[in-house]
């Protein structure tokens, strides 16, 4: 049987390296005095720069991390994934999110069948539909052109779309307003319905299985809302779902249905119809395709570049180094670009649902932590929020993201001699360095900064559709690379099922109480009964 990764020679060498890194002479303030460091700790790929000079590593660390990647065949497994091999072994599926943005013309076969023609067919259908909506050829039940778009879906059915939609808002048609209805809390539904014109609203329901409780509850509310206003939901609802699901039933007609594929998990699905339908309406199909081609460029970089020049593989190795060897429990994602405000929320799900695992592929307990706790907020907001902790409290690694060219040409007003964009970069670069070197001199303990706090700097040339696509694909590949090295499965999510199952029990108890007013929730846990009673006695 294959030796678990944490018992291999490559892992043991990194444990020894971590012991060396704890010594005083390995403080980042001292390591950064070596000006040759930038020669091997800055790498560029697909037009993006990854600067890891402020990570707690030496050249030896990088070599040992690379040896771990080779030992675990991380690149080989990514290539096998992209070729359609069954890498999602627990569900016996391929994982082909990359295929949604593969314009190479090659065939990718799953169980002997080329999946590319059907993927291309869905894209063509999205193009035609989005152009018909944007041109006004398809309108609401009472003849109004659509102006409000409500995406009904939860988790991977909306988070990626919201991230990309916000990031590329500068490219959006200003006559459209995008809303996201994820939470089953009726307050969110109520808030959205205050903002929309019912006769000009398109509801896009996203669910692969079309059995997700929250999504079905919100769809039912939407249908009731439309019928109460004399609107036929058939002319206002679009579904994005698996072929043959309840959302793809000719007996329940809708305006249009777009198919998802079982080889694409929700959190990896923004490149598919999940993101394509709403984003092509908001941005125009051509802009969405530019986003796909940017993602494709990063995919090609991840697949074709050897380890030490491979941006997402290096980022994955550093995450493993910080989590498993240096013992950091969390990681921040801080984009110094307001349009990337929803990036952290998307990467939270992408990474934590993929890598929050406790067993290896062979079903045995992993024996180490997988996946840090991810969180984030745009800079400079974050500096006035949780950076006190970052500098003087519990340390955590950070991905800083900088953008050279802003989306908007703001008037070049000078404050203290610099523009707003220059001020943004001054703050970004100073935070990166301050966390690394700290401030030790002086006798005031309240103004002591220990430094030695690691970070990476990711630099994008701009926030074009191509660059946003590259950033998305970078984090997707980083997520998958980590799992391949840990020998876990980043494509299932059984950890979200238990709570859903328990909710079924409580739901049945609520239904029984409605039928039998004398029923005292005997089927529910005694810990839950007081809350259920209060809910029904309100």
UniProtKB/TrEMBL annotation:
Short name of any one Pfam family annotated for the protein: PGI
InterPro entries: G6P_Isomerase, G6P_Isomerase_C, Phosphoglucose_isomerase_CS, SIS_dom_sf, SIS_PGI_1, SIS_PGI_2
Gene Ontology CC annotations of this record: cytosol
Keyword Protein biosynthesis included in the entry's annotation: no
Reaction(s) catalysed by this chain's protein: alpha-D-glucose 6-phosphate = beta-D-fructose 6-phosphate
Catalytic site: 353 (proton donor), 384, 500
Source organism superkingdom: Bacteria
GO BP terms: gluconeogenesis; glucose 6-phosphate metabolic process; glycolytic process
Keyword Methyltransferase: no
Enzyme class label: isomerase
Family matches, as HAMAP family: G6P_isomerase
UniProt record similarity statement: Belongs to the GPI family.
Name this protein carries in UniProt: Glucose-6-phosphate isomerase
Organism: Desulfatirhabdium butyrativorans
Underlying gene: pgi
């Amino acid at each position: 049987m294959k030796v678990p990764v944490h018992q291999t020679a490559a892992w043991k060498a990194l444990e020894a390296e971590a012991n060396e890194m704890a010594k005083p002479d390995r403080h980042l303030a001292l390591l950064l005095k070596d000006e040759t460091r930038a020669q091997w700790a800055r790498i560029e790929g697909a037009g993006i720069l990854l600067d890891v000079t402020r990570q707690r590593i030496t050249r030896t660390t990088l070599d040992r991390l690379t040896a771990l990647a080779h030992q675990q065949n991380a690149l080989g497994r990514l290539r096998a994934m992209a070729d359609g091999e069954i890498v999602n072994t627990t569900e016996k599926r391929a994982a082909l999110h990359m295929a949604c943005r593969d314009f190479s013309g090659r065939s990718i076969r799953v169980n002997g069948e080329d999946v590319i023609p059907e993927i291309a067919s869905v894209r063509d259908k999205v193009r035609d539909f989005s152009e018909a909506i944007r041109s006004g050829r398809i309108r609401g039940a009472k003849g109004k052109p659509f102006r409000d778009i409500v995406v009904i879906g939860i988790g991977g059915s909306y988070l990626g779309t919201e991230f990309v939609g916000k990031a590329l808002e500068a490219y959006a048609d200003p006559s459209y307003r995008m809303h996201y209805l994820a939470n089953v809390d009726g307050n969110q539904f109520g808030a959205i319905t205050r903002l929309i014109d019912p006769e000009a609203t398109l509801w896009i329901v996203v669910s692969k299985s079309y059995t997700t409780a929250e999504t079905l509850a919100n769809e039912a509310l939407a249908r009731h809302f439309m019928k109460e206003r004399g609107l036929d939901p058939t002319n206002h609802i679009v579904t994005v779902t698996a072929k043959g699901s309840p959302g793809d039933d000719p007996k329940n007609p809708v305006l249009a249905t777009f198919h998802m594929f079982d080889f694409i998990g929700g959190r990896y699905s923004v490149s598919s119809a999940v993101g394509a339908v709403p984003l092509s309406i908001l941005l125009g199909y051509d802009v969405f395709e530019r986003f796909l081609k940017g993602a494709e460029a990063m995919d090609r970089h991840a697949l074709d570049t050897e380890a030490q020049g491979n941006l997402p593989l290096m980022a994955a190795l550093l995450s493993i180094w910080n989590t498993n060897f240096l013992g950091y429990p969390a990681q921040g994602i801080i984009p110094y670009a307001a349009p990337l405000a929803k990036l952290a929320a998307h990467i939270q799900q992408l990474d934590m649902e993929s890598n929050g695992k406790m067993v290896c592929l062979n079903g045995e307990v992993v024996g180490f932590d997988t996946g840090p706790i991810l969180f984030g907020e745009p800079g400079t907001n974050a500096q006035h929020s949780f950076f006190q902790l970052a500098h003087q409290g519990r340390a955590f690694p950070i991905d800083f993201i900088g953008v050279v060219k802003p989306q908007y040409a703001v008037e070049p007003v000078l404050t203290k001699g610099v523009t707003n964009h220059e001020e943004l970069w001054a703050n970004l670069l100073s935070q990166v360095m301050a966390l690394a070197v700290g401030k030790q001199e002086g006798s005031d303990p309240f103004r002591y900064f220990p430094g030695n706090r690691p970070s990476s700097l990711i630099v994008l040339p701009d926030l074009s559709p191509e660059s946003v696509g590259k950033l998305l694909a970078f984090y997707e590949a980083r997520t998958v690379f980590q799992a391949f090295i840990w020998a876990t499965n980043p494509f299932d999510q059984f950890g979200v099922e238990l709570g859903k199952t328990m909710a079924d029990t409580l739901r049945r108890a609520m239904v029984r109480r409605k039928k039998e007013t004398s029923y005292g929730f005997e089927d529910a846990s005694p810990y839950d009964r007081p809350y259920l009673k209060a809910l029904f006695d309100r």
